């Protein structure tokens, strides 16, 4: 059960960070780079919770 909660919290945090990045008054190229970085970090953390790494 704690695995499911950890996955849910991770997905919610990733979504919140992506939303906040979209709200920043930055150039669209910089926003895209930051979003890609956040998504990659999120995927890595999800894979760690699933014991792939």
Describe the protein's architecture and organization.
This protein is mainly alpha-helical and 53 residues long. Helices cover 83% and strands 0% of the residues. The protein has two helices and no strands. α1 (2-23) runs antiparallel to α2. The chain is elongated and about 40 Å long.
Total beta strands: 0
Rough outline: elongated
Order of helices and strands: HH
Number of helices: 2
Low-confidence stretches: none
Structural class from helices and strands?
A: mainly alpha
The main pleated sheet reads as:
none
Tell me the radius of gyration: 13 Å
Tell me, rounded to a whole number, the average pLDDT.
90
Q: Helicity level, as a percent range?
A: over 70%
Share of β-strand residues: under 5%
What is the CA-CA span between the terminal residues?
20 Å
What would a concise description of this structure say?
The chain has 53 residues and is an all-alpha fold.
Q: What is the secondary structure topology, with strand pairs?
A:
Blueprint (H helix, E strand, L loop, with lengths): L1 H22 L4 H22 L4
Defining key terms:
mainly alpha; 2 helices; 53 residues
């Amino acid at each position: 059960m704690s695995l499911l909660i950890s996955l849910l919290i991770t997905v919610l945090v990733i979504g919140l960070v992506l939303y906040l990045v979209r709200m920043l008054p930055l150039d669209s190229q910089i926003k895209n780079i930051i979003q890609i970085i956040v998504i990659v970090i999120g995927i890595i953390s999800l894979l760690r919770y699933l014991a792939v790494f």
